[in-house]
Amino acid sequence: GDTPELQRSFPWRPRFHCGGFGVADRYQESFQRLLETARRKNSRLEILAAQWYGSDVMAVADWGGSLSALSRQHLRGYAQEVRAFLEEWNLQGYVVDFEGTNVVRWYTELLVALASAFRASAGDRRLQLGVSPSTARDLKGTDSLTDYVLVQSYAPKVDLDDYLAIFDPHKVYVGLCPEGCWNGTAEAACGEVLAKGLGGMHVWRLNNGNATRMAE
After folding, report:
1. What is the tens place of the pLDDT at every residue in 174-210?
2. SUPFAM superfamilies this protein is in (predicted)?
3. Is-contact 166 140, C-beta < 8 A?
4. What are the strands, taking DSSP E only, across the chain?
5. Residue 74: pLDDT above 60?
6. Is residue 129 assigned to a domain?
């Protein structure tokens, strides 16, 4: 389902069969090396792909497309493309990563489409679905659809109670972001995870230049 909005927001148009979702041609080799390195170092590792949707006020050329570039009539096809990508690369799941200013009103419908496509995945494999939000807004009713909630808790102080009112605590992960803008401590975050019975912690940036270098 090509539209001018999708063409502007997703200009890389990957070469493999699932069409509108994937890895740009120039990153295919480094992406494969990253997966091979990670699996060689830990054969039990589960790998989830994430697509980050920048704020609608950010420049598309610099930050990628806004979630609003997807239209409601294309959600089913998009979800099938994501599933095809995961099966192509033998990945275990997918995370929708979005900024708070970028939430669209049909966000829950996107999660429903993804969850439905994942349930239809081949064989006994169960693809996992996660969200990485910077706000709990518009997430009510999505607990049954998601396996992970990777909270963006690196910039302003996040009230985890907003998420715990919606999700099972074991699904909620506190985010650490070593980019210089996070002024908390790992010890404090660990204490909060244990005190609230959360699933754990996550780090979504390792400052390793992973777009151009293989995993180290």
Report:
1. 887 665 555 667 787 788 899 999 999 887 665 444 4
2. (Trans)glycosidases (SSF51445)
3. yes
4. 48-53, 93-98, 128-132, 148-151, 172-176, 200-203
5. yes
6. yes
Q: Which domain holds residue 135?
A: 4-203
Please provide the average confidence, as pLDDT, over all residues in the chain: 75
The answer as to whether 151 is a domain residue is yes
For position 35, which CATH number holds?
3.20.20.80
In 3D space, the residue among 113, 154, 149 whose CA is nearest the CA of residue 133 turns out to be: 149
The half-sphere exposure of 129 on its side-chain side, counting CA atoms within 13 A, is 20
* pTM: predicted TM-score of the whole model, two decimal places: 0.75
Q: Do residues 81 and 20 make contact, with C-beta atoms less than 8 angstroms apart?
A: yes
Domain-located, residue 210 = no
Please indicate, yes or no, if residue 214 is contained in any of the structural domains. no
Neighbours of 62 (CB within 10 A): 7
Number of domains in the chain: 1
